[in-house]
Design a protein that fits this description.
The protein has 70 residues and is mostly helical. It has one helix and no strands.
Length: 70
């Protein structure tokens, strides 16, 4: 009976440990997903900024050309 109780407790401990590992894996997965979302948002912002910078350069070039012409 003592051996059976010990096996039962050990099995419960393993089950609890397995649940904790599963929760940790889930937390890591959520963190990775959040990081991916942030990275995609940052990439999109960088693309938009590059487009705006290109438009600004074009406007400045046009403005300077008009000034040169007098």
């Amino acid at each position: 009976a003592m051996t059976t109780d010990l096996i039962s407790r050990n099995t419960q401990d393993v089950a609890l440990g397995t649940d904790e590992v599963a929760r940790n894996i889930s937390a890591v997965r959520e963190g990775v997903e959040a990081t991916g979302v942030s990275a995609r948002a940052g990439l999109q912002a960088a693309k938009e900024l590059a487009l705006q910078a290109g438009a600004l350069k074009s406007e400045v070039d046009h403005f300077l050309a008009n000034i040169r012409r007098g």
